[in-house]
Amino acid sequence: MQNGSSAQGMDAFTLLGETVRDALSKRGFTTPTEPQRRAIPPLAEGRNALVIAPTGTGKTETAMLPVLNSIVESPPEDREGLSALYITPLRALNRDMRERLDWWGEELDVEIDVRHGDTTQYQRQKQANDPPDVLVTTPETLQAMLTGKKLRTALSDVRHVVVDEVHELASAKRGAQLTIGLERLRELSGPFQRIGLSATVGSPEEVGKFLTGDREFEIVEVDVTSKVDFTVVHPEVTAEDETLSGELATDAEIASHVRVVRDVVREHESTLVFVNTRQTAEALGSRVKKLGAPIEVHHGSLSKDVRIDVEDRFKAGELDALVCTSSMELGIDVGRVDHVVQYGSPREVSRLLQRVGRAGHRRDQTSRGTVVTSDPDDTLEALAIARRAEAGDVEPAHIHHGSLDTVANQIVGVVMDTGEASARKAYELVTAAYPFRDLSESQFRQVVRQLHSNRLLWLDEEKDLLEKSGGTWQYFYANLSMIPDEETYDVHDMSSRRQIGTLDERFVVNFAEPGASFVQRGEMWRINDIDDEEARVNVAPIEDPTGEVPSWTGSEIPVPEPVAGEVGEIREIAARQFEAGADRSAVARDVLTRYPTDEHTVSEALKPVERQVEAGHPIPTADRLVLEGQARRVVLNSCHGHRVNETLGRLLAALVGQRTGSSVGIEVDPYRVSFEVPPKVSVHEFVEVLEATDPDHVEGLLELALKHSDSLKFTLAQVAAKFGALKRYRGNKRFGADRLVAALEDTPVYDEAVREVFHVDLAVPETTALLRRTHGGDVELTTARERTPIGVSGSSSGRDFLVPENADASVIDAIRDRIRNDRVILMCLHCTEWTRKTKVRRVPDEPECPDCGATRIACLNPWDEETVKAVRATEKDDEQERLTRRAYRSASLVQSHGKQAVIALAARGVGPQNAARIIAKLREDEADFYRDILAQERQYARTQSFWD
């Protein structure tokens, strides 16, 4: 590996032939961009290279101009088959690349075509019979092409392979699959040039080895961070937000977020608003639309037609903004973008650079982005990420090394290529791919025997030969992709007869039924009917503002350990200043010298730290673990990110549970692990377990703990499908998960499921190192005598602030303030004459009638005059009887529980029966009371269509 630089860089275009230079002049390319200046010389010499450069700096032309030049200057007899493959991770990128390359193809007389899953059979036949010079395709389509007789002939001429957005593939199993696919291609065509393109890579050497199979390559890296500018903002609630909250049917704090996004969109011509989940995309999109902004939603669960439509409208200037998920990260061409909003912490440095990097480059401007945050954890996390992004501290690629289901998939692929294969040859081919270089021969043999027992191929032990079986063909074409199969339902608009998107099976099963309403594409829909056989949901558009946001599945973006550690560092520095007597404004101004934000944003984020210092509690950092507990809750404050905290959480839950004979529940965020424990379990059990656990035993203990976990069972089902041990995965209702674990425990299927859970969810080496440092005294382990402000503040990282399932502290405050300012009618049921309309906050703790002194006081909705009339009526009809009974149930609650009952009854959609349930629950603090109220309000919003 070498870092690319060349004295010829300034004259890079002179290294290309006359035909290509003439085309460059016609296209207006007079001066190479920096990536072109530095990368074209080694690429023109045919060397392998990884090119890392910001979006919009001509990476496609950087790679393709030397490739097109090579094709143009080749003798005619060398252009009979495919000369080059351009591989992208998304079909939508295929469309963009085709449009972008078509001009060059026509000008240079080079035939360029696209092939993916939607390509027609006619077009496929045409490509097989008369291959184009350049084929733009996906990793999965390459798998299928390698098995076709005519296409194998065409592929035997490949001399160049370009892999776009290579960082996206490097961290995924489909990327690991591609690396073996490229070795299968090399077996067919001989050595070929490999070119990787990416906007951000944290470990260029690793990704280069991933791309080339650890063959010689160059890295050409243009500084991504030299032209980026970030601002982190926590919105300040204004008088306008109080007004908007009514229009948006939400509280003022969320209204302030929507307003800030709207204002940024208004201030710029074209804005991408990135969010971390599809739920947030729908919730934010629908609310910004209500404020009149020309904006649409774009994410992977919308139909292809809808996505293309909004892309084209944005490109044409008809839309000012798109609210999007990672669907827009990978360089889909939507024209010029002059600003990027990131709603919520981006969680990773690479994600922030990738997203903000989409803005500004068309005019060679600085890429500018605004990060809008929701709570103290979110803000400090975003600040740490923004600083690290400006410093170029990008996370390394998380390559799937040795994934056995990928090996299984590719062994079948090797057999499909030629009908039979030597087991030894197949092993050598698989291990030539970088992620599988350490795969042992015994592991390979176990996988082969598993495939043989599943009848996906035949193993002739004597001849050491792998041959096709009756199940080979069907398995291979059903498993071209390593993306797990999960059932989805198509959503169809009955009025337009168009498909508008998809819903996950989990959402349909748990929520969807005729009459229910939900948000998709930023608009409201009501379900008419569900066809389970066709996996289809028929809907009609409505104006109802109470719909539920679809609950799409998907992996949470984990916050890396260094980012969480820096959040702890910010807290520690601020705490020292508070201890020295500095006020919050002074501390905030000091933070401003190091981080891109404003005084209000930092001041809000530092409130929990200030309260922590005032209470005399220790500050959690990367070098200080703080345990605290109260009632049934123990919290380990640990600034070590999602994966380390998940590992610690599972380990402690298993060991404490084993010690006490009790079940221990866990909830994890990047800064704390929260345990739900029986009353007899205290903080001290956790301290003892942390101090007694041998770091060398962490992996073995976790594997034992995993055996009964839902995550292992879920992963095992998906891995089993990729091994052909199950029919294609369609949800856990098709098998008994415990039986599946028992059946597969001593197989490579089980080994791979464990490896994947360890790889994706856990961080065993890092956690082992943390325990060693704790035992050695380098990390302090301390306890707080009570719950601390930082420990209880929680984090919305990993949750949707707009769609809270478990409300964080800021949302709890908003609910509490809203209910306190809501009005209710109080009515004495003893004398029935006294009524009073008042705000909840003005109700005394134990209400009584000022006229007769009775304490039987009903709490009614402020518009509920009908119940007042019903109670006073001497002769009642059935409806009045029902209303009277309801009033007496309300009064009974108020008489027993006072102001608490009034608060519960004042919530939206909470009647006496549900209020009684909420009040009856045992809780450790007031916040949980409001969480339960919020849960009931959400349930009412889901089902309101039935009651109206």
From TrEMBL:
Domain of life: Archaea
InterPro entries: ATP-dep_Helicase, DEAD/DEAH_box_helicase_dom, Helicase_ATP-bd, Helicase_C-like, Lhr-like, Lhr-like_DEAD/DEAH_assoc, Lhr_WH_dom, P-loop_NTPase
Keyword Hydrolase on entry: yes
Occurrences of domain Helicase C-terminal (ranges): 260-405
Pfam family, one: DEAD
Molecular function terms from GO: ATP binding; ATP hydrolysis activity; catalytic activity, acting on DNA; DNA binding; helicase activity
GO biological process: DNA repair
Positions of the Helicase ATP-binding domain: 40-219
Keyword terms of this UniProt record: ATP-binding, DNA damage, DNA repair, DNA-binding, Helicase, Hydrolase, Isomerase, Nucleotide-binding
UniProt KW Transmembrane helix keyword: no
Family membership: Belongs to the Lhr helicase family. Lhr-Core subfamily.
Stated name of the protein: ATP-dependent helicase Lhr and Lhr-like helicase
Organism: Halopelagius inordinatus
